């Protein structure tokens, strides 16, 4: 089989979440960070014929880059990677699945208190601003029942630089104070527009509106929602 560019893009994104990956038979990829605070799932165009475990996903992607239009032939213990001209190949051995971190079950998102749309442009602005000012934290903070601020700052230092952008939100008929806190380092998202849902049970859900990929990201202990 040959991997599509879209699948390669997803694999590169997943490698930023965890270098380990178990690819199961079929068209669904899932990964989970080592700290278990990020889970991601994608539906891809390519159909894997069997389950394989990869210990170092970046190494696997680098191995693919050695070949022009690489083709994968799956064996019991390794995958054969061949180039377009068929004159060279690489046997890439699978890992022991027991040493690879992978989600054990499907996450169920609780009913959210707040939801909103996050355009890709705003997402890029927020993450770039956090990098520029060295802000480790991000907060979605209530303004009114229809608006909120996304702020990047350092919650442990009130004198730290803060970048903020206003977003329209749906509070599902309730007008109460809230602050949903993230670590900015956990926003390991593919580019694009997102539908976002927030729960005071310290979980958030980011669904890409154009690519079939979604992320569940844990919220910080400082998260508050006054029901």
Which terms would index this structure?
40% strand, 227 residues, alpha+beta, 11-stranded antiparallel beta sheet, 3-stranded antiparallel beta sheet, 16 strands
Structure description:
By secondary structure, the chain is α+β, with helices and mostly antiparallel strands. It has helices spanning 5-17, 57-64, 120-133; strands spanning 21-23, 26-32, 38-48, 52-54, 71-74, 78-82, 89-93, 114-118, 137-142, 147-153, 163-170, 178-183, 194-199, 203-208, 213-218, 224-225. An eleven-stranded antiparallel β-sheet has the order 2-3-15-14-13-8-11-10-9-12-16, covered by helices on one side. A hairpin with a 4-residue loop joins strand 14 and strand 15. The longest helix has 14 residues, at 120-133. It is elongated.
Largest sheet: 11 strands, antiparallel
Number of strands: 16
Order of SSEs: HEEEEHEEEEHEEEEEEEE
The protein's oligomeric status is single chain
Runs in which pLDDT lies below 50 for 5 or more consecutive residues are: none
Report mean pLDDT, rounded to a whole number: 94
Side-by-side strand order of the widest sheet: 2-3-15-14-13-8-11-10-9-12-16
Q: Strand percentage, roughly?
A: 35-45%
Shape: elongated
Assign a percent range to the helix content. Answer: 10-25%
N-to-C span: 52 Å
Specify the number of helices: 3
Computed Rg: 20 Å
- Backbone structural class: alpha+beta
């Amino acid at each position: 089989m040959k991997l599509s560019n879209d699948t390669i893009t997803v694999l590169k994104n997943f490698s930023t979440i965890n270098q380990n990956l178990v690819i199961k038979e079929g068209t669904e990829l899932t990964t989970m960070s080592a700290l278990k605070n990020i889970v991601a799932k994608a539906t891809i165009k390519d159909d894997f014929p069997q389950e394989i475990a990869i210990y170092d996903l970046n190494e696997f992607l680098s191995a693919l880059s050695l070949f022009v239009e690489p083709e994968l032939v799956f064996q019991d213990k390794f995958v054969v990677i061949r180039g377009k001209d068929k004159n060279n190949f690489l046997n890439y051995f699978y890992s022991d699945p027991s040493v690879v971190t992978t989600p054990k079950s499907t996450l169920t998102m609780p009913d959210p208190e707040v939801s909103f749309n996050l355009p890709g442009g705003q997402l890029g602005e927020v993450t770039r601003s956090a990098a520029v000012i060295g802000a480790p934290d991000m907060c979605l903070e209530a303004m009114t029942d229809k608006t909120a601020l996304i702020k990047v700052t350092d919650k442990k230092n009130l004198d730290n630089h803060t970048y903020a952008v206003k977003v329209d939100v749906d509070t599902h008929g309730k007008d109460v104070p809230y602050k949903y806190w993230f670590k900015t380092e956990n926003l390991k998202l593919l580019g694009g527009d997102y539908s976002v849902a927030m729960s005071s049970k310290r979980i958030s859900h980011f669904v890409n509106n154009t690519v079939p990929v979604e992320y569940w990201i844990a919220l910080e202990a400082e998260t508050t929602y006054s029901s």
